[in-house]
Amino acid sequence: MKICAAQTKPFKGDIDRNIVSHNRLIDLAVTFKTDIIVFPELSLTGYEPILSQKLATNQNDKRLDIFQTISETNSITICVGLPTKNNSGIQISMIIFQPNKARQTYSKQHLHSDEHPYFVNGQHQVILTIDNHKIAPAICYESLLLEHSKKVFKSGAEIYIASVAKSANGLTKAFKHYPDIAKKYSMIVLMSNCLGHCDNFESVGKSSIWNKNGLLLGQLNDINEGILIIDTETEKITEWQNN
User: Fold this and answer.
1) Residues 35-41, mean pLDDT to the nearest whole number
2) What is the pLDDT of residue 243?
3) Angle at 31 between CA 25 and CA 37, to 5 degrees
4) Does the pTM exceed 0.90?
5) Per-residue pLDDT tens for 165-187?
6) Core vs surface per residue 21-52: b (16+ CB within 10 A) or e
7) HEC per residue, the chain
8) What pLDDT was estimated at residue 182?
9) What integer is the mean pLDDT of 8-15?
10) Domains and CATH numbers, the chain
């Protein structure tokens, strides 16, 4: 199976423009016969909590139909980031499109303290199954909590996909944590990070993949958009960046 981390520089608050840029990277991932592509946290709006109330929508938003079409046409699972709204409030969510399946929404279960004024916690973990592999999504802060990785491991997850928006300081913590949980739970760990200004910090890319032994197999730079793919059987890495 091939899994892909997408690294994007979002247009602040512009869902339509971000859909176009997402589709370019998805089309590229399709040429490499990728099975699943994961985008950064809140990738379709940028990480902008102050705009979340205005931008929040849901998985049935007609603007997202293009992702379902691409998923079914090319047999690829697509995971994009978006603020969603329900009766409990606004959530930081990942919308998941799979071939010939109903869309799913995974919402961040563990929020950072800075996020509480804008968002409410998600309540349920999603575990995806692709080619008999179980894949667990995590969104930024919660991916650095041992309780989250332990929970998904107990659910049978073999692959951990972290969709994040992280500064240089955040990456310092991530680059210590992700190899440890990869080795501890024998899980492939993939981190998809964005680029550019987010809320009150700069996100610095360096999307990465670690194998089950905690070895860093591939990493994008801190400047360019691109994709990073691992073949889980051979551990071969494919990298493309928009120079």
Assistant:
1) 98
2) 75
3) 45
4) yes
5) 999 999 999 999 999 999 999 99
6) bbeebbebbbeeebbbbbbbbbbbbbbbbebb
7) CEEEEEECCCCCCCHHHHHHHHHHHHHHHHHCCCCEEECCCCCCCCCCHHHHHHHCECCCCHHHHHHHHHHHHHCCEEEEEEEEEECCEEEEEEEEECCCCCCEEEECCCCCHHHCCCCCCCCCCCCEEECCEEEEEEEHHHHHCHHHHHHHHHCCCCEEEEECCCCHHHHHHHHHHHHHHHHHHCCEEEEECCEEEECCEEEECCCEEECCCCCEEEECCCCCCEEEEEECCCCCEEEEECC
8) 98
9) 98
10) 2-241 (3.60.110.10)
Place of tokens 């200004």: 197
**Six token digits for residue 53:** 């109330």
Is the Cβ–Cβ distance between 229 and 25 less than 8 Å?
A: no
**Whats the size of the chain, residue-wise?**
243
Q: Residue 196: count other Cβ atoms within 10 Å of its Cβ.
A: 17
Distance CA 186, CA 62 (A): 39
